[in-house]
Amino acid sequence: MIADGVEDEEKWLAAGIAGLQQNAFYMHRALDSNNLRDALKYSAQMLSELRTSRLSPHKYYELYMRAFDELRKLEVFFKEEARRGCSIVDLYELVQHAGNILPRLYLLCTVGSVYIKSKEAPAKDVLKDLVEMCRGIQHPVRGLFLRSYLAQVSRDKLPDIGSEYEGDADTVVDAVEFVLQNFTEMNKLWVRMQHQGPAREKEKREKERSELRDLVGKNLHVLSQIEGIDLDMYKDTVLPRVLEQVVNCKDEIAQYYLMDCIIQVFPDEYHLQTLDVLLGAFPQLQPAVDIKTVLSRLMERLSNYAASSADVLPEFLQVEAFAKLNNAIGKVIEAQPDMPILGVITLYSSLLTFTLHVHPDRLDYADQVLGACVNKLSSKGKLEDNKATKQIVALLSAPLDKYNDIVTALKLSNYPRVLEYLDSETNKVMATVIIQSIMKNKTRVSTADRVEALFELIKGLIKDLDGGAHDEVDEDDFKEEQNSVARLIQLLHNDDPEEMFKIICTVRKHILGGGPKRLPFTVPPLVFSSLKLVRQLQGQEENPFGEEDSTTPKKIFQLLNQIVETLCNIPAPELALQLYLQCAEAANDCDLEPVAYEFFTQAYILYEEEISDSRAQITAIHLIIGTLQRMHVFGVENRDTLTHKATGYSAKLLKKPDQCRAVYACSHLFWVDDQDNVKDGERVLLCLKRALRIANAAQQMSNAARGSAGSVTLFVEILNKYLYFFEKGNPQINVAAIQSLLELVTTEMQSDSSTPDPAADAFFASTLRYIEFQKQKGGAVGEKYEPIKA
């Protein structure tokens, strides 16, 4: 059915074009022979093709453009006739004898154009006559194209200031009157299209109307080009007349398009000076009009105008632009109670952007906008609409983008209140935006109060807002979010220890409720921030000002104990053990023996009770040994207790090679270079001998289980430990012990039961080269190594 209609239309268009071309041919022949009467006869017949009602606007436009081209040639002929002495007044009268009204009016407009150019009559009189005559066509499509032709031929002949057609007085008023009258009539015709034909074709009609809208809008463009329209005339005549037509037509398509046209074609300074009048029209528009888009475009234009030059900013203050826009938005929302929440947020988002551009120093204005937004959201609860939540993210991101400083945004009391209306997912998005802004601008958030406010804003990342689990959350996304929180914690700093301690306490309060999945990410940066503060206070007396509540290392360590303890409850024992050892090392640097001992005790308890995985045990025991070896604060008794425990743990590891390596690592606990009181050669030797026994046992077990003795790597490693302590001057490690160990390794490597191991061979060869190198050094070292036969 639709295909048939399209085919019919193509046929009618083809027939129309054929008729038009045929008459155009005869018209040209008459023009060539200067036969005026025939030229008018055939041109009228040619234009009669435009009387059709069968074509859609799109197809009618094709026909019209062909007729338009022919009319331009006819106009040239009329000019030639006038030059040859033909009276243009007579010609103007003559064309009015055409039989049909539509061809008659097209010819009249064409001659009228030449009439104005001849200046035989004032332009204003001819234009007034033409615009009145065109009322004879009331068919919407035919009338629109006729008036569009009139606008086209007259646009360069308006009696404007500085124009060659300028009359004696007030001619600009006549030019404006002509364009306004044509605009009004065209808009009426355009709106009338909506109410013709059956209701089922409503969508088709709306599509056709949208194709024709530029014909109407062109009049407003012509108005904006008239030089003589100053601000006063625009304010008193042009804008009120145009708005009257827009409001009275009560057609949503026309209202939306024309309001947008007004905003786009007239200068920004005019909009600024006539804000009252322009904004007063918005609440009067039809409820279905997309006011939010039009108003947003107006605010965007004004924002760009403000950004173009600092000189125009006083104008904004003078006309109280913010107050007027804020008031207008309130009225529009009131007049449209069914406006979707997306529309409301979009309006306030545009107003906020305008405010930040025009009044960046007025935080109270920005807060006022956010407050108004909160009032509208308060009746809605949590937002379900995806587009609305995205618009809120844009709204809340605007102050961050403008000020590049979260500290400024924290001064906006309504900022966190808007966040409350976001669902937990969007809350996370917004929290990420805030953190990224801080990272990008390296913002210093340096007081506990601001940290408190900041962590309220990003609570979507710190805890579960809706009590939901994380099962459905992508693991990589979750890690990325928590790592960003960790980076943020590291950025918080204040040089004043008292304030920094308050910041640490504030962060602790917020992150400890984060749940078992978040704490392993957020506790370590807090611990290291605290340890940084400890290092800052290191060496201070217990209470530098004699105040009981002043911040001291001991006080921080008490807090650290509580913080790390939360990881034990999750449980995350390996991480907690590492942090306890870090704290112990910091306590060691502060000469706080009881505190350091307590941290070691906690680490040992974790090792004994919580860490059962053999790999985790190996890592933990080497961490314990490494940390304990660096401790200088312990007295003999405490050090012995901790060392004894560590060696005991080493000997109890599951695999013999792991036992061996842990036991020979313990040898360093009895010999520390920079501590004269920790140089016990005998116990070093005991450890190394014990390691040798374990290495032997490992070989025997391998022999029994696999039929081969396995690698000699452990023996070479122990040999290297012997050489290390021999070089450091341990009297218990002598040449004989090293020599026997060298022979043992050589024998084992040559044994039939040993497994070939290129890595062990290379390691041993490297060790032998080292011994030779030390011999060749000469001096005391050379003498020491000389007796060793490698």
TrEMBL record:
Keywords: Cytoplasm, Endosome, Golgi apparatus, Membrane, Protein transport, Transport. It is found in: Cytoplasm; Endosome membrane; Golgi apparatus, trans-Golgi network membrane; Prevacuolar compartment membrane. It is a peripheral membrane protein. GO terms for biological process: intracellular protein transport; retrograde transport, endosome to Golgi. The keyword Nuclease does not apply. GO terms for cellular component: cytosol; endosome membrane; Golgi apparatus; late endosome; retromer, cargo-selective complex. It holds the Pfam family Vps35. Coiled coil: none annotated. InterPro entries: ARM-type_fold, Vps35, Vps35_C. The keyword Membrane applies. PANTHER family: VACUOLAR PROTEIN SORTING-ASSOCIATED PROTEIN 35, VACUOLAR SORTING PROTEIN 35. Belongs to the VPS35 family. Plays a role in vesicular protein sorting. This is Vacuolar protein sorting-associated protein 35.
